[in-house]
User: Which sequence fits this backbone?
């Protein structure tokens, strides 16, 4: 009888130890050494989005040069030239609006693939990067709206100036240029944050 009790006791401890070992192995396998995983869809959308964002930043740099030219022409009274530069930039503005749509689609694909990314820290970084790109799109929309306003202000000023000297004391153009510059800076900043965050992401998933 005593022997049976001892056997049961040993058996109990053996089973208990086995269960603890299985649980420990499970935790070790799935939580401590689970290999990183990034869905193919996320990677494709990520690289596509990065390319699009690069084009946006590059085109925004060209717009900066146009803004400087417009400011010079406005101060010197060469309003026809200023309006011509705005017209040239309107083409870029349309292209950027299309790029914003394309970037939104890439971000949508990245978001749909978020849940399958491992480890959790990498998933959090990916989510943070997406937020930065959403911010970039918002500033790009603001940028496009400001350019449309600038074009309209210049058109009105031009019509009022036909045959006469250009009106003085109009600070609206200068203010719009400053606001556009701020949006360009914000676009660059959000793109840099996206790149930095994705570099951290790559370190965790490579």
Assistant:
């Amino acid at each position: 009888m005593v022997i049976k009790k001892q056997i049961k006791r040993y058996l109990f401890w053996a089973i208990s130890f086995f269960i603890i070992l299985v649980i420990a192995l499970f935790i070790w396998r799935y939580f401590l050494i689970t290999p990183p995983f990034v869905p193919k869809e996320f990677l494709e959308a990520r690289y596509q989005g990065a390319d699009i964002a690069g084009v946006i930043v590059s085109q925004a740099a060209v717009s900066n040069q146009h803004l400087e030219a417009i400011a010079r022409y406005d101060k010197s009274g060469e309003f026809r030239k200023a309006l011509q530069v705005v017209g040239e930039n309107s083409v870029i503005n349309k292209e950027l609006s299309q790029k914003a749509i394309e970037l939104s689609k890439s971000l949508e694909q990245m978001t749909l693939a978020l849940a399958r990314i491992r480890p959790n820290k990498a998933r959090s970084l990916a989510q943070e990067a997406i937020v930065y790109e959403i911010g970039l799109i918002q500033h790009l929309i603001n940028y496009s709206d400001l350019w449309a306003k600038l074009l309209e202000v210049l058109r009105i000023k031009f019509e009022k100036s036909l045959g006469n000297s250009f009106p003085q004391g109009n600070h609206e153009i200068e203010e719009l240029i400053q606001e556009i510059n701020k949006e360009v800076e914000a676009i660059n900043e959000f793109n840099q944050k996206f790149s930095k965050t994705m570099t951290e992401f790559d370190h965790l998933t490579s």
Q: What stands out?
A: The chain is about 85% helix and 0% strand.
